[in-house]
Amino acid sequence: MIAINNITKSFGKLQVLKGIDLTIGKGEVVSIVGPSGAGKTTLLQIIGTLDRPNTGSVHIDGIDVTSLSNKKLADFRNRHIGFVFQFHQLLPEFTALENIMIPAYIAGTSSSEAKQRASELLQFMGLADRANHKPNELSGGEKQRVAVARALINNPTVILADEPSGSLDSKNKAELHQLFFDLRDKYGQTFVIVTHDEQLATLTDRTIHLRDGELEQPETVEPSEQPVEGEDAVADQHSAAEQTIEQPQNEEINEDKTR
Predict the structure, then answer these.
(1) Rounded to two decimals, what is the model's pTM?
(2) What does the alpha-carbon distance between residue 20 and residue 147 come to, in Å, rounded to a whole number?
(3) Cβ distance 119 to 97 under 8 Å?
(4) Cα separation of 146 and 96, whole Å?
(5) Hey, which residues does 60 pair with through a beta bridge?
(6) Fold exhibited by the domain 2-241
(7) Using an 8 Å Cβ cutoff, are 30 and 201 in contact?
(8) Integer Cα distance of 120 and 258 in angstroms
(9) Torsion over CA: 187, 193, 199, 204 (sign)
(10) What does the alpha-carbon distance between residue 250 and residue 259 come to, in Å, rounded to a whole number?
């Protein structure tokens, strides 16, 4: 599905990615975690064809996207990749339904087909009654669900999300996180999610740890003695279950470039 081979990326003298090799399977929900400045957003940009690596290649569905011309790349991106960012980026003058339809129009889909598809997505999101509402009439969680529906309108093979729940309260976070898995189960898309949210990272099929532009293996603890019974054992199990766990092309998506 996604094969990343030895990609590097530098901005001036700053090397942000240092020989990344990574494979992500079809239908996987994968989180990318790491400290600020680790290169997470830059990696997501390159996977999403918003930027090109200095060296190496990215294959999506068997296509070497790093070899495509800018025109072909833009068409591939619109048809095969959906984006969800921390801030919904909905156009305020359009309704929820119209916002969702925009990528379909760009792809050349007829108005009737785009409207039908957008209506189906709103129904799935539980927002059918909000179709004709503009963004200022929607809650934060509703706006983000509309943004997710917009990312899905062209039935892309890959959904890339950069801190998608970063601006939501705990209730809406939980609902959005569950939505990703419901969508994967219904439509079969691959999700790659950059996040600082520990809860979301622990839910994903696999967590990729990035530090200083390189993939790192999570620490493993070798068993040294038999587990302790009682309260200490419960505390140890609780501690072991915890994991540690970063915005769009405009101001949000450039965070790694400024470091």
Answers:
(1) 0.76
(2) 29
(3) yes
(4) 6
(5) 2, 63
(6) Rossmann fold (3.40.50)
(7) no
(8) 39
(9) positive
(10) 16
User: Which amino acid would we find at residue 66?
Assistant: T
Tokens found for residue 143: 């706006």
Which tokens is 231 given?
A: 């309260």
Neighbours of 188 (CB within 10 A): 11
Sole residue written with tokens 């240092």 = 18
Tell me the pLDDT tens digit for each residue of 202-244: 889 999 999 999 998 754 444 444 444 444 444 444 444 443 3
Name the residue with higher pLDDT: 99 or 171.
99
List all residues 6 or more positions away from 89 whose beta carbon is below 8 Å from its beta carbon: 147, 248, 250
Placement of tokens 């984006």 in the chain = 83
How many Cβ atoms are within 10 Å of 199's Cβ, its own excluded? 14
Distance, CA of 151 to CA of 217 (rounded, Å) = 31
Angle at which helix 111-124 crosses helix 140-152, to 10 degrees, equals: 130
75 sits in which H/E element: helix 70-80
